[in-house]
């Protein structure tokens, strides 16, 4: 027991002192024996790694008579260098981690030493006298409002009736009084709370002297309402004597243990025992860890070299340490190289660190803390104060961080760490002084401009910031400090136009329009007006202006032109408006202006425009009357010298010859097939030409055209020319003699205008002369058909075509095409010739038989017809070369309507009559036929009509198709 007292006297009065080897957590694992000590280790410090249990012992009363004991020599402690010899037994840091940490710590110290040199003390700008007065006024106003609010609250508080609430439960009261001092208490042990009844309490002998009697002192008491409430609130603890601490023994030396291993939690007495315990621990460490991992009681990660284990929590701690030593920013890949574990585990623990610690985040694979961002903002602020502006794009390249991230972080610290203004649209940060300098420069430059100037040129010439230029310029213009406007938006072609130039410009434009009554767009463009049309419309929106391509004309010129045109029309003369038009007008603008004037006076029908001259219709009629005598003389001479002007007697003789020559080539082929003459009967009587047509193989010869040519090609070659009255030069010579005081240009245009009406008049005169000469012919009455007979003939052919159209619909498309072409060449051609012959008999006393009209003669007749009936008949003639009977019927109906021919709609009686006539015609041809092929052809047509009750007209090549169609209808 005396040994225990000595042990307590040496070591229990103060906290345990341990070496720096034990300044680690108990839960850490031992590291490699070959790693060196890192610079992070500090000198000898106090730690709470292990503390001896405090023994509660009764204090001994010291006697004055006791002699002082001799001091027991203390055990010699080992130095730090001696304890370093057992480095392989302590918890060490791995060599790779220590080396990286040491280098990083050195770099951090260098950076911290350089930071104060770059950092400048930010000083607030001193307030001016006006700002101080405004701030004082604002402060006085706030104080008055606060005082009024306080007085109002005090008044409300006084109005409230304070009702004391009586408390019924147990209470604890605090008393503090001033009373006379009393003699000191006797040396006795008083247990107030009843917590320790065994521990005596004695007043030490070195207590201060008692003050004299009669002195006052302060006393404080705490009273409870009753004992029951005190005991229920503070129950006395059970009176159990505490266990005396047991002196631990070192398992190696069996001596009293002075230390405890923080890793194995085993007490030991000296360094030799500590070494032996660690060696035994390390021998079994791998087996223990493997067993714990198998039982899933421990989670460890292997290093890349496979020599060490590391726990995930240790990875997180090392990540935090490296992040701190690197200044708050480190790449995850660099962490993987330092910690020497797989990158997956490093990324996982880095994400957990970023989630667990506020202000820590992962940006582009880098861990960044709030401290780093604060330091970066301070550096940006230093650079901003030096340069006046900072580009976020450049900061992004410098710090290797995204521009959006920098914009977000810097904007959050504007006004706190960064003294400036941010333009997020352009990604720039400016200081107020820089903005003021730019504003003053812009104000001076644009105030001195006196003519329109490109803003882009000023930016390069004076070094202005284009990001601030337009916003500051708009601010100065809106405030009236700079007089002018920016035209063209904020683009490269933006132009600044000063007000002084605009005023001079407006004066010139108004003066020119007032004196000349027009404005030329090109002149306004030379003055610097980019959009002359919009400028004029905006400037003179109340005036009546006519906008042309290159100029705008005032109402004064329009009134002059309208008055001149009306005068010319009323006086039945002409007028040249060139003298009244502005000289800058182009030909198109002049024509547009004259047309507008003609529409304004509503003289479209009573006048005609010839270039820049306006001629009345009555004047043109008088000019046409000048050629009447010449026209009659030339017509009589033309009829006598060349009677074939329209359709003459020679044409009547030539028509049968042309018909015979056109059918001569067909006769040569038909002779080989022994075609009978009876097979080409007339269709107008109700039948049709049903001669069998057999296709033979064609032989191609070089430089030889096909035997059958289109009617349209032949007609184009034989198109007649109309008789011409006089040429333009001849008409111009007549006008020069008869019309006086007219410019030559107007006479030339007038001559060109009179060519066509004179030609039409001449044709009418020639026709009149010709008819008057042929009306006395004795054979005219014989050749004339009555209108009623021709009308009936046309209706009969029209009914045959409609009946034949129904018959061909029983066959396939290819057969329908061949049959339609055959019908168009035969029956439809006869119908067309009949209609043309009807008009010829009515107007020109032409042919007796329309079936003798060949395509050449038909085109010649159509060329002489009037325009109003020639167009539909030309379409009808063109449809004969087509492939559709429906198209031909539509053309027939349109031509009949234009020519005044009445077509009767078919009815059942008429259809039965047509079928009967057609059948009778086929029967007569069959009786007279001797050729076997022709007999088969006619027989097939009769059988088809008998079983389908439809007419059919088909070439010989379609006989097999007709027989195939009749197989299903004929009995076996």
UniProtKB/TrEMBL annotation:
<dbReference type="InterPro" id="IPR056761">
    <property type="entry name" value="Ufl1-like_C"/>
</dbReference>
<dbReference type="Pfam" id="PF09743">
    <property type="entry name" value="E3_UFM1_ligase"/>
</dbReference>
<feature type="compositionally biased region" description="Basic and acidic residues">
    <location>
        <begin position="149"/>
        <end position="159"/>
    </location>
</feature>
<dbReference type="Pfam" id="PF25041">
    <property type="entry name" value="UFL1_C"/>
</dbReference>
<feature type="compositionally biased region" description="Basic and acidic residues">
    <location>
        <begin position="1"/>
        <end position="12"/>
    </location>
</feature>
<dbReference type="InterPro" id="IPR056580">
    <property type="entry name" value="Ufl1_dom"/>
</dbReference>
<feature type="compositionally biased region" description="Acidic residues">
    <location>
        <begin position="13"/>
        <end position="36"/>
    </location>
</feature>
<dbReference type="GO" id="GO:1990592">
    <property type="term" value="P:protein K69-linked ufmylation"/>
</dbReference>
<feature type="compositionally biased region" description="Basic and acidic residues">
    <location>
        <begin position="63"/>
        <end position="116"/>
    </location>
</feature>
<dbReference type="GO" id="GO:0005789">
    <property type="term" value="C:endoplasmic reticulum membrane"/>
</dbReference>
<dbReference type="Pfam" id="PF05764">
    <property type="entry name" value="YL1"/>
</dbReference>
<dbReference type="Pfam" id="PF25870">
    <property type="entry name" value="WHD_UFL1_5th"/>
</dbReference>
<dbReference type="InterPro" id="IPR013272">
    <property type="entry name" value="Vps72/YL1_C"/>
</dbReference>
<dbReference type="GO" id="GO:0032434">
    <property type="term" value="P:regulation of proteasomal ubiquitin-dependent protein catabolic process"/>
</dbReference>
<dbReference type="InterPro" id="IPR046757">
    <property type="entry name" value="YL1_N"/>
</dbReference>
<comment type="function">
    <text>Deposition-and-exchange histone chaperone specific for H2AZ1, specifically chaperones H2AZ1 and deposits it into nucleosomes. As component of the SRCAP complex, mediates the ATP-dependent exchange of histone H2AZ1/H2B dimers for nucleosomal H2A/H2B, leading to transcriptional regulation of selected genes by chromatin remodeling.</text>
</comment>
<comment type="similarity">
    <text>Belongs to the UFL1 family.</text>
</comment>
<keyword id="KW-0436">Ligase</keyword>
<dbReference type="GO" id="GO:0016874">
    <property type="term" value="F:ligase activity"/>
</dbReference>
<feature type="domain" description="Vps72/YL1 C-terminal">
    <location>
        <begin position="248"/>
        <end position="277"/>
    </location>
</feature>
<dbReference type="GO" id="GO:0034976">
    <property type="term" value="P:response to endoplasmic reticulum stress"/>
</dbReference>
<dbReference type="InterPro" id="IPR056579">
    <property type="entry name" value="Ufl1_N"/>
</dbReference>
<keyword id="KW-0833">Ubl conjugation pathway</keyword>
<feature type="compositionally biased region" description="Basic and acidic residues">
    <location>
        <begin position="124"/>
        <end position="138"/>
    </location>
</feature>
<dbReference type="Pfam" id="PF23659">
    <property type="entry name" value="UFL1"/>
</dbReference>
<feature type="region of interest" description="Disordered">
    <location>
        <begin position="656"/>
        <end position="720"/>
    </location>
</feature>
<feature type="region of interest" description="Disordered">
    <location>
        <begin position="1"/>
        <end position="166"/>
    </location>
</feature>
<protein>
    <recommendedName>
        <fullName>E3 UFM1-protein ligase 1</fullName>
    </recommendedName>
</protein>
<dbReference type="Pfam" id="PF08265">
    <property type="entry name" value="YL1_C"/>
</dbReference>
<keyword id="KW-0808">Transferase</keyword>
<dbReference type="GO" id="GO:0061666">
    <property type="term" value="F:UFM1 ligase activity"/>
</dbReference>
<dbReference type="InterPro" id="IPR018611">
    <property type="entry name" value="Ufl1"/>
</dbReference>
């Amino acid at each position: 027991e005396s040994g225990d007292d000595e042990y307590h006297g040496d070591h229990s009065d103060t906290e345990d002192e341990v070496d720096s080897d034990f300044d680690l957590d108990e839960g850490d694992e031992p590291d490699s024996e070959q790693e060196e000590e890192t610079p992070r280790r500090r000198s000898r410090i106090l730690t709470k790694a292990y503390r001896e249990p405090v023994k509660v012992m009764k204090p001994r009363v010291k006697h004055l008579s006791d002699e002082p004991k001799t001091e027991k020599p203390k055990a010699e402690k080992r130095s730090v260098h001696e304890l370093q010899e057992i480095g392989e037994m302590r918890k060490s840091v791995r060599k790779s981690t220590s080396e990286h940490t040491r280098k990083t710590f050195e770099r951090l110290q260098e950076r911290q030493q350089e930071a104060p040199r770059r950092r400048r003390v930010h000083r607030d700008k001193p307030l001016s006298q006006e700002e101080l007065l405004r701030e004082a006024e604002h402060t006085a106003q706030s104080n008055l409002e606060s005082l009024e609010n306080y007085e109002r609250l005090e008044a409300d508080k006084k109005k409230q009736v304070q009702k004391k609430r009586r408390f019924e439960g147990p209470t604890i009261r605090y008393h503090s009084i001033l009373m006379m001092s009393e003699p000191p208490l006797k040396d006795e042990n008083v247990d107030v709370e009843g917590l320790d009844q065994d521990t005596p309490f004695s007043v030490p002998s070195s207590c201060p002297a008692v003050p004299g009697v009669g002195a006052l002192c302060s006393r404080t008491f705490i009273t409870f309402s009753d004992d029951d409430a005190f005991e229920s609130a503070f129950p006395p603890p059970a009176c159990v004597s505490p266990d005396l601490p047991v002196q631990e023994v070192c398992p190696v030396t069996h001596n009293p243990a002075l230390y405890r291993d923080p890793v194995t939690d085993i007490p030991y007495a000296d360094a030799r025992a500590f070494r032996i315990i660690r060696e035994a621990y390390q021998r079994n460490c791998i087996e223990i860890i493997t067993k714990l991992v198998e039982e899933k009681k421990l989670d460890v990660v292997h290093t890349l070299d496979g020599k060490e284990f590391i726990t995930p929590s240790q990875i997180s701690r090392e990540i935090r340490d490296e992040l701190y030593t690197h200044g708050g920013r480190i790449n995850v890949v660099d962490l993987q190289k330092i910690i020497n574990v797989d990158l997956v585990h490093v990324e996982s623990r880095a994400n957990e660190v970023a989630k667990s610690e506020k202000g820590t985040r992962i940006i582009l694979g880098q861990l960044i803390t709030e401290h780093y961002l604060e330091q970066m903002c301070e550096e940006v602020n230093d650079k901003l104060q030096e340069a006046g502006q900072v580009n976020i794009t450049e900061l992004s390249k410098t710090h290797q961080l995204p521009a959006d991230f920098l914009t977000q972080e810097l904007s959050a610290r504007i006004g706190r760490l960064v003294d400036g203004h941010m333009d997020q649209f352009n990604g720039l940060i400016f200081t107020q002084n820089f903005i003021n300098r730019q504003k003053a420069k812009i104000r001076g430059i644009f105030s001195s401009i006196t003519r329109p100037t490109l803003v882009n040129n000023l930016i390069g010439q004076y070094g202005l910031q284009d990001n601030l230029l337009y916003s500051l310029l708009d601010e100065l213009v809106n405030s009236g400090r700079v007089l002018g406007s920016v035209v063209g938006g904020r683009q490269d072609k933006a132009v600044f136009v000063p007000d002084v130039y605009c005023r001079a410009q407006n004066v010139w434009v108004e003066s020119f329009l007032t004196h000349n009554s027009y404005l030329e767009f090109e002149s306004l463009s030379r003055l610097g007006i980019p959009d002359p049309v919009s400028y004029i419309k905006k400037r003179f929106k109340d005036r009546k202006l006519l906008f042309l391509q290159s100029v705008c004309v005032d109402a004064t010129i329009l009134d002059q032109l309208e008055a001149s045109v009306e005068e010319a029309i009323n006086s039945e003369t002409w007028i040249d408006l060139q003298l009244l038009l502005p000289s800058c007008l182009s030909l198109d603008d002049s024509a547009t202006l004259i047309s507008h004037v003609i529409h304004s006076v509503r003289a479209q029908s009573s006048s005609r425009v010839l270039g820049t001259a306006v001629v009345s219709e009555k004047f043109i009629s008088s000019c046409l009357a000048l050629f009447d005598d010449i026209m009659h003389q030339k017509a009589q001479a033309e009829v006598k010298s060349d009677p074939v002007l329209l359709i003459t007697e020679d044409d009547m003789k030539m028509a049968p010859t042309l018909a015979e020559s056109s059918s001569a080539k067909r006769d040569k082929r038909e002779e080989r097939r022994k075609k009978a003459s009876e097979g080409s009967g007339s269709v107008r009587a109700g039948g049709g030409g049903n001669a069998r047509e057999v296709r033979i193989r064609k032989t191609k010869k070089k430089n030889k055209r096909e035997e059958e040519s289109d009617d349209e090609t032949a007609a184009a070659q034989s198109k007649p020319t109309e008789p011409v009255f006089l040429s333009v030069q001849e008409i111009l010579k007549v006008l020069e003699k008869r019309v006086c005081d007219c410019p030559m240009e107007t006479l030339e245009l007038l001559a060109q205008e009179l060519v066509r009406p004179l030609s039409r008049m001449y044709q009418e005169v020639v026709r009149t002369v010709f008819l008057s000469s042929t009306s006395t012919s004795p054979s005219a009455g014989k050749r004339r058909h009555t209108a009623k007979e021709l009308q009936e003939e046309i209706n009969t052919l029209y009914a045959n075509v409609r009946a034949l159209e129904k018959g061909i619909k029983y066959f396939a498309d290819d057969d329908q095409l061949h049959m339609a072409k055959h019908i168009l060449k035969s029956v439809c051609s006869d119908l067309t010739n009949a209609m043309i012959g009807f008009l010829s008999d009515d107007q020109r006393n032409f042919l007796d038989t329309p079936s003798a009209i060949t395509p050449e003669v038909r085109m010649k007749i159509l060329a002489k017809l009037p325009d109003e009936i020639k167009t539909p008949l030309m379409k009808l003639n063109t449809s004969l070369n087509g492939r559709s009977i429906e198209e031909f019927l539509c053309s027939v109906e349109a031509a009949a309507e234009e020519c005044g021919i009445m077509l009767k709609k078919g009815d059942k009686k008429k259809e039965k009559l047509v079928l009967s006539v057609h059948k009778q015609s086929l029967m007569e041809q069959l009786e007279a036929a001797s050729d076997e092929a022709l007999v088969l052809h006619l027989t097939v047509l009769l059988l088809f009509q008998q079983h389908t009750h439809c007419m059919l007209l088909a070439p010989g090549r379609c006989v097999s198709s007709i027989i195939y169609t009749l197989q299903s209808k004929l009995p076996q």
